Amino acid sequence: xxxxxxxxxxxxxxxxxxxxxxxxxxxxxxxxxxxxxxxxxxxxxxxxxxxxxxxxxxxxxxxxxxxxxxxxxxxxxxxxxxxxxxxxxxxxxxxxxxxxxxxxxxxxxxxxxxxxxxxxxxxxxxxxxxxxxxxxxxxxxxxxxxxxxxxxxxxxxxxxxxxxxxxxxxxxxxxxxxxxxxxxxxxxxxxxxxxxxxxxxxxxxxxxxxxxxxxxxxxxxxxxxxxxxxxxxxxxxxxxxxxxxxxxxxxxxxxxxxxxxxxxxxxxxxxxxxxxxxxxxxxxxxxxxxxxxxxxxxxxxxxxxxxxxxxxxxxxxxxxxxxxxxxxxxxxxxxxxxxxxxxxxxxxxxxxxxxxxxxxxxxxxxxxxxxxxxxxxxxxxxxxxxxxxxxxxxxxxxx
Amino acid sequence: xxxxxxxxxxxxxxxxxxxxxxxxxxxxxxxxxxxxxxxxxxxxxxxxxxxxxxxxxxxxxxxxxxxxxxxxxxxxxxxxxxxxxxxxxxxxxxxxxxxxxxxxxxxxxxxxxxxxxxxxxxxxxxxxxxxxxxxxxxxxxxxxxxxxxxxxxxxxxxxxxxxxxxxxxxxxxxxxxxxxxxxxxxxxxxxxxxxxxxxxxxxx
Lengths: 399, 204
What we know:
By secondary structure, chain A is α/β, with parallel strands linked by helices. Chain A contains 13 helices and 15 strands. Chain A has helices spanning about 20-30, 55-65, 75-90, 110-115, 130, 135-145, 160-175, 190-200, 235-240, 265-280, 300-310, 325, 335-345; strands at about 5-15, 35, 50, 100-105, 155, 180-190, 220, 225-230, 245-255, 290, 320, 350, 370-375, 380-385, 390-395. Chain B has seven helices and eight strands.
């Protein structure tokens, strides 16, 4: 049982574009999506910068043709990205084979739950946002919107590695023959809950985030949804599917260090990357480009940089963090960066690590800062979550 | 179905008694959990200041793991021990405390130190950090101790070589009542790893 896992479709909506093509155009033109927040009324609005999707909820609702103010923004953007992924994979009959949906989210319906927090008692008409809070509710709504019936539908909530873990679970289920096809990724909208939470942890930057820069001040939060369609070898053969890339490796490890911080030398990150290489049957020298987690917090970038040096034995390949474009989209980040990794493979292009100026004192690592062409075979993508939940995915051109 | 897995050792903590493999190793009939668990911490000469920052559920799980994992593994030989825990009340005890701290619109303080414990699996994190376990872990919520489910789950971890040993069991804290039953499943041990034997030891 060691089957290939083909990526046959992808979809995304983020601060730098409403679909894959727009995201790619922004990535290669260096157009970042970071600005002052305008859709959430927050006391922190003058102290933070975020990666906000430009369309308002009414606009998103219209695009999806759904009723007003019933769904969380997490569901709205999740539906749009998943729809694009299915369309891209040319899937019209979603129930003709065993098709699953695995979605990562941390926020779920929190945006709406908090908005109406003081209204539930007197206004029964907004109580749908109480049951909408649950992370799993967002996935169920997306599944229903896509028309999935009697399918494997589940939600993964492991902080910032959620979507990466969703992709990993989906790949494993394709490999073991439990599913023929699976939609995997994640969705998270901005909410006061995450803004205030990260503000409390003192890791929000008041300006554009600068991953791997010595003077980095923290992260910009972002919102996004991104999904891949994974299909088995049999499906690809049977339907003569166009394959965008393959999920070759995956690994998850427990950092066992701290409830919110990463270990000083990136122990969990090294373990996750080692496991992913082992699953892929590769050496570290097979990796041509790393899409780093690179949140631009002092702790992450130091820990991840040290982990990269340990894994690659000082010969670290070209790497960059794309979070300065999109903001850190939390549970969706692994999905967003999976889409970017596939785009990198398809176009033999590595995306710039924006806002980088000064090398970090602790080591001799410089991310790529320009759009750079290079023949790419294998791209490694990291996603590390609070609680030491470290995940790595490896995407390849060849099966 | 692998018949080769065994229960190596087990630990109970409830009603002021800590027992290891069915024998009481510490007793203190304190009226409240806080003073009981603190005295147990001192009795077992635990030297770990982070203990005092933990919530009740984590303190309970942590102490049961301390009693079971006394023999320290050498640092260069890291043990691959998975952790699979379960309970009924999730993290409700801390959830309530946190809710109280933010209930008053005019006087609230959402403490990050409390907030971090508003998930039941944080107690697994505390054990992982203490014993340097970079391993597989999961936390399940059931109405009552579910020997069958935990058995299947830990057998699967061992049989697929995801782990060499599994620290598993039940750790529940709700409205002052507490109960821990943790045990180690391994390839070797003195008790068979069957649903009946787990249930028998749980009720011991």
